[in-house]
Write a structure and sequence with these properties.
Length: 103
């Protein structure tokens, strides 16, 4: 019997939610404080480190662009590919829990 990997499900779901947050904030960069506050509406125990880790993952996948200011603040925005993923215009690789398109 296989169980659900709760941590993996959380990471992949959070990645999708981060894409949605940034898609709704377009066309401006979004501060990590606003991103974290929004994510905490879904995951009340989310930490700054957790959000940064998932943003970094999305940056590695070229879905977001992160501006890391010298004083330590992060600002993020979607790339053109990130917009396409958020809008269901392209297929997505595993690692992000994007719901199936139902329309």
């Amino acid at each position: 019997m296989s169980g659900i990997d709760v941590q993996r499900a959380r990471r992949e779901s959070m990645r999708w939610n981060l894409l949605q947050v940034l898609d709704n904030a377009r066309p401006v960069q979004t501060s990590e404080q606003l991103i974290l506050a929004t994510i905490r509406g879904i995951y009340p125990d989310a930490t700054q480190l957790e959000v940064r880790r998932e943003l970094d993952y999305l940056d590695d996948r070229k879905l977001v662009r992160i501006d890391k200011s010298p004083i330590g603040h992060w600002y993020a925005e979607l790339t053109h590919y990130g917009v396409d993923v958020a809008e269901y215009s392209v297929d997505i690789l595993p690692g992000i829990a994007r719901p199936e398109k139902y329309w």
